[in-house]
Amino acid sequence: MNKRYLFIINTDKYAGNFEREMCAYSTGQIGDCEVGHRQADDFLDEYGEDVVNEFGDKIMQVADEHGCYRPCEIYNNNIETNNEYHAVCISFNQPPTSHMIHIMRGMSIEYGVMKGINVLSFELLLEETSVITTEIASFNTKF
């Protein structure tokens, strides 16, 4: 069974316009595309290399539909309008510490204030997935 912990930042705006920058500002992490590099530098200046590394050790880089790995994605938080996803999802391979959650909450609210995005709430979810293999046929080597 695969597990990942999802830190969800619910907002009032379509998250596809800012999820990578908000994640970088809130965790210091960027993906393959390097979007949010400036925001990650701001985080580094604020919290230092040890905290950046702590986030880097626990955050999962997840591939998007193009195979580009990134530390966040947009998420369906059931606050949709016009089929727009209004949540930023940051995936962790283990639960974030209370200190990490405190930092992410504060920094995402700060980023939202700077960009005119209202942060509505936060959630921490555990997602468990399993793979089931079922044999549908078997063949011997003789034709």
Descriptive overview:
With 143 residues, the protein is α+β, with helices and mostly antiparallel strands. The chain has one domain (2-129). Helix content is 34%, strand content 24%. The strands form two sheets. Strands 4-5-1-6 form a four-stranded antiparallel sheet, covered by helices on one side. Helix 1 packs parallel to helix 2 (37-47) and helix 2 crosses helix 3. The N and C termini lie far apart (38 Å). The mean pLDDT is 92.
Task: Compute the CA-based radius of gyration.
Answer: 18 Å
Main sheet: strands, sense, barrel: 4 strands, antiparallel
The low-pLDDT segments are none
Number of domains: 1
Oligomer: single chain
What is the tally of helical segments?
4
How far apart, in Å, are the first and last alpha carbons?
A: 38 Å
The total of beta strands comes to: 6
Mean pLDDT: 92
Share of β-strand residues: 15-25%
Biggest sheet strand line-up: 4-5-1-6
Q: How does the overall form come out from the CA principal axes?
A: elongated
Classify the helix fraction into a percent range. 25-40%
Class inferred from helices and paired strands: alpha+beta
Q: N-to-C SSE series?
A: EHHHEEEEHE
